[in-house]
Amino acid sequence: MLMKRDERAFFNEVYRDSFPVLFRVVLRIAGDEGTAEEICHEAFIRFYKHSTRLPDSMQARYWLLRVGKNLAFNYFKRQSRERNANQKVWNEPERPQEHADAEALQNETAALVRRAVARLPKTLQDVIVLKEYGGLSYDEIAGSLGISVGNVKVRVHRARERLARELEAEDVHFPE
Amino acid sequence: MSIFRSNPQSSDLSALLDNELPPRSARMLEDALQNGTRAPHEFDRIEKIHSFLTSQETSAEEIAAAQERVRVRLDRSIRAVHHRDQRPWWERSVTIPMPVMATAMVAVMMFAVILASRIAAPGASGSPQQTAGTIADRAESVNVQVNVNGDQTEQLLRWLNDRNSVETVTIQLPDTAQFQLRGKPVFMRPELPGERASEPTADDTFAITPLEDPEE
Hints:
Mean pLDDT of chain A: 85
Structural class of chain A: mainly alpha
Helix content of chain B: 40-55%
Shape of chain A: globular
Radius of gyration of chain B: 52 Å
Oligomer: heterodimer
Number of strands of chain B: 2
């Protein structure tokens, strides 16, 4: 016999369990908390309208992660385009940090890494974001993206190798 | 380059880092790295990236605070969505995509132009003279049967001729009447575009006269 699901309870359960991982992923891509909250809010509004089509909380979490990640990368790319346009219009070179203390260095490296992650091909980007930012297991990533665990393993490694190569080429310093 | 050409043993390094290798394989790989049989610098490179990507962990308190703030905003937004959904359809606002709107406007304008041209077309409506003309045109195609006595036929034909509004007159003769033909019958056909109808010559005069009484 088919049981009608309590959609409000389902929404609350998904919100309670999936918000932390979604927020972590989005925050690491977008770079600031205010924007991350905006994006999470938008993702959950979309989920509210879409939730009846998702069979269980695990599928709902995967769906939210995909939507949140895409929204965050779109935001990040838009920001990058605007920044580049401003630099071109005002002919302002990117100014180096005046006080190269540990925190400033950390922030600069974080920004460079975010850009490198944003430049990755989508197949590698998806797995590395879910692995490193979301802390998902290979099994969960495979379920989220609909690929095999072996494929996840290969893609995670290739993404790390590529990031290492690009950041070495840019001479990025990783603070200890 | 395809990911399927990646060395599977290289990806084991990442799996080791992520604790995704079976215990036996993990031990063997760790031994190989310690003994130097596997290049440890490759492992160090990816470990550095992995450490940096996971180093900026947000605290659980920050996440909980953000979750609460977003929950309050979500409550408001969802209530607004609910309220919007519960309104009757005539009070709801509808968002129409720009291409659909443009197409609909063009269609409405085309319809209006066609309608206007139909209304302005002659014959559809207009002055009383036009209306009378239209009725007269239609009247031409009306068949009217008029019964007159034989001695009044000429009078009727003259009257019709004076009106100049009759195209065809069909005369039905009684079955009992007998006539004789004089002259040579001439085949007449309607005038075709760009061609003049052949007209009978004086020699070809065709007439119908009553039969002469054989007793006379």
